[in-house]
Design brief:
With 84 residues, this protein is of the alpha+beta class. It has one domain. The chain is 38% helix and 17% strand. It is built from three helices and three strands. The chain has a three-stranded antiparallel beta sheet with strand order 2-1-3. A hairpin with an 8-residue loop joins strand 1 and strand 2. Helix 1 crosses helix 3. The radius of gyration is 12 Å and the shape is globular. It starts with a strand and ends with a helix. The relative contact order is 0.22. Keywords: Membrane, Transmembrane, Transmembrane helix.
């Protein structure tokens, strides 16, 4: 499962759960972030490593993101989409 958390990095009360198939590519991941950010101003991605099967490129866990304050920002998504 992938967790898209809107409106706040730590606020687990506003969670949108995406069921399988999970993000199959970086382009899809960034596209979803970009679209949701249009409605919610910004988006954060939390990925529970134990709940999904992903490629190594996406193999990170929630604890690591929280500890290092590591999240994907909308400007990164927009830059990627502009290049594709």
């Amino acid at each position: 499962r992938g967790y898209l958390n809107f409106r706040g990095k730590q606020n687990l009360g506003n969670i949108f759960i995406m069921f399988s198939p999970f993000f199959s590519s970086l382009a899809y991941l960034l596209f979803i972030l970009f679209i949701w950010s249009l409605f919610f101003f910004f988006s954060f991605v939390y990925y529970n490593k134990q709940c999904s099967k992903l490629n190594n490129a996406f193999d990170f866990n929630v604890a690591t993101i929280d500890e290092k304050d590591w999240f994907l920002r909308l400007d990164m998504c927009k830059k990627f989409l502009d290049l594709t």
